[in-house]
Design brief:
mainly alpha, Serine Threonine Protein Phosphatase 5, Tetratricopeptide repeat, globular
Length: 340
């Protein structure tokens, strides 16, 4: 599942990194356009979001936030729909955003918003470098971004979206490399930062909630995951993003409930015309595994056959899901062997 890819940790550090206290530092119209645009993204209305951010770009040409969030919209759409990323478009937007953000920062290095916008631009740049397997640049840019998020807190300790980014980074960095000498384990601190951010966010706590969902799953705190996911889904019931986390939490405690939520997501994707089948394959494989574990081998076999009989998959989908398709074949063989 794409959510487990290390490169996407950078994305979740930044995904929907809308402000809580940041509204106090932004012109009202800028704040409103960003809030409306991000709400549109969380509800998967990407064309609507793009219009808000085009309006923001036109409204304030000396602020890079419009370009940053146009890139976010493109990234979010491709991530959600399983499409190829529009690298040229995204890279152009982020390159221009970094240039503007650096110039603004040089003029006022103690402005929390100028530091923050630079951190956002650097962070998304790190993300696209990671997706292109340019790991050295991705890590370098990622650390630069976190350094600037930390600088935000040095300037203003109540800038809670910075706590979200730093908390996410501290947890996953500690998870991956705390075994190394001289690297302290800051997972508990990371969780505290994330929990603080979820309670202090005023306009949007998307990032903190999504990050915390996957941290709770990693720590096997499934009841907390389910409670948090249901809380945010009561506000955004159509959000596929949060349903992924909810379904994953149920995998470990209630197969049938997990299957139910995964089927909700699958049915949602099936209702969208023109998709390439990427997420449908992922979801059917996840459901097939759960059906098999729950003893429903005929249903699991049916799903495997549907996946393996799919025709006209694009080269992109076949390349991206090559390993998964092999695992579907293995599951099918295991089911057939077990019924002999």
């Amino acid at each position: 599942m794409a959510h487990y890819k290390l490169v996407l940790l950078i994305f979740f550090i930044l995904f929907f990194a809308e402000r809580n206290s940041a509204q106090d530092f932004l012109p009202p119209k800028t704040d409103s356009l960003i809030t409306l645009g991000l709400d549109a993204i969380i509800n998967q209305n990407y064309d609507e979001a793009k219009q808000y951010f085009l309006g923001l770009e036109k409204y304030d040409k000396i602020d890079p936030l419009g370009k940053i969030y146009l890139a976010v919209t493109s990234i979010s759409r491709s991530f959600d729909l399983g499409e190829e990323y529009n690298w040229d478009y995204i890279s152009k937007l982020l390159g221009e955003a970094i240039d503007i953000a650096e110039k603004n920062y040089e003029k006022d290095p103690m402005s929390v918003m100028k530091v923050y916008t630079l951190a956002l631009a650097e962070g998304y740049n790190a993300y696209i470098k990671g997706l292109n397997n340019n790991w050295f640049s991705a890590i370098s840019n990622g650390y630069e971004a976190i350094g600037n998020f930390e600088k935000c807190l040095m300037i203003d300790s109540t800038f809670y979206d910075a706590y979200t980014a730093i908390g996410t980074f501290k947890y996953w960095k500690s998870k991956k490399v705390s075994f190394l000498p001289m690297v302290s384990d800051e997972r508990n601190l990371g969780i505290k930062y994330l929990e603080l951010a979820t309670t202090k966010s005023r306009h949007s706590n998307y990032l903190a909630v999504n990050s915390l969902l996957w941290v709770y799953i990693d720590t096997k705190e499934y009841s907390k995951t389910i409670e948090l996911a249901n809380k945010i889904l009561s506000k955004y019931p159509r959000s596929r993003l949060f349903k992924w986390g909810l379904a994953r939490a149920y995998e470990s405690i209630d197969f049938k409930k997990s299957i139910e939520v995964y089927n909700e997501i699958l049915n949602d994707y099936n209702s969208i015309k023109g998709l390439n089948g990427y997420h449908q394959i992922v979801l059917m494989h996840l459901i097939a595994q759960l059906e098999y574990r729950d003893g429903n081998k005929p249903k699991a076999l049916e799903l495997c056959n549907i996946i393996l009989n799919k025709k006209n998959l694009s080269e992109y989908v076949k390349d991206e899901l090559d390993n998964r398709l092999e695992r579907v074949k293995q599951l099918r063989e295991s089911i057939i062997e077990s019924t002999k």
